[in-house]
Amino acid sequence: MDVRPASENPFPWGAAATPYEELGGEARVRALADAFYAIIDEESPVLRAMLPKDLSVSSQKLFEFLSGWMGGPGLYWERHGHPRLRMRHVRFPIDDHAANEWSRCMDGALDRIGAADPVKEFLSAELGKAAQSLRNMVSPDPTL
Ligand code: HEM
Predict the structure, then answer these.
(1) Across residues 54-79, what is the average pLDDT?
(2) From the CB of 85, is ligand 1 less than 6 Å away?
(3) Rounded to whole angstroms, how far apart are CA atoms 19 and 119?
């Protein structure tokens, strides 16, 4: 049973109440989404091929989603309704490689914006789990 007082921060860092605050608020979450899509554009052909030419809307939507998911303003919910991430990703071929690429680019983005531990480790682990959970296909076995 969790016996910590309700006032105690449940996250593995100091005074900030949420990952959103700990990362540094709106500008930093936006920077994370922008860095993520910039890294995909630079170095992940498999993810780049799934995305539109102009990445600004994709980045804006990820920013809005992460804002609420990290405990900040629920911008995605307000503007687009329930995220239904599984349903919205069904049309993309997400195998192990694509999910791992997503996490690799997100880890790169956390580094690029200079996110500090432990919030960096927390986001990397939780978003990594989310990416794995969105896999919707198995890669063909090249030995068969
Ligand atoms: C597992 C690997 C993943 C792949 C390959 C992937 C790919 C994509 C693609 C191609 C889009 C459409 C972008 C556009 O049309 O602009 C998209 C949208 C989106 N993705 Fe992912 N994604 C992955 C994981 C995730 C994860 C882990 C999250 C959240 C933690 C996430 C959040 C979103 C959101 C919020 C959108 C916008 C949905 C909308 O159109 O309203 N994705 N994703």
Answers:
(1) 98
(2) yes
(3) 7
Residue 9 confidence (pLDDT) above 80: no
Question: What is the structure's pLDDT at 29?
Answer: 98
State the distance from the centre of ligand 1 to the C-alpha of 14, rounded, in angstroms: 30
- The ligand 1 atom nearest the CA atom of 98: 5
Atom of ligand 1 nearest to the CA of 132: 1
Structure tokens at 63: 């920013």
Per CATH, the homologous superfamily of domain 22-133 is Globins (1.10.490.10)
Q: Is 46 in the pocket of ligand 1 (CB under 6 A)?
A: no
**C-alpha distance from residue 105 to each of 12, 69, 139 (Å):** 23, 19, 20
**pLDDT number for residue 3:** 58
As a whole number of angstroms, the distance between CA 27 and CA 63 comes to 10
Percent of the chain residues past pLDDT 90, beyond the cut = 83
What are 86-103's pLDDT values in tens digits?
999 999 999 999 999 999
The residues, any chain, with a CB within 8 Å of residue 138's CB and separated by 6 or more, are 95, 96
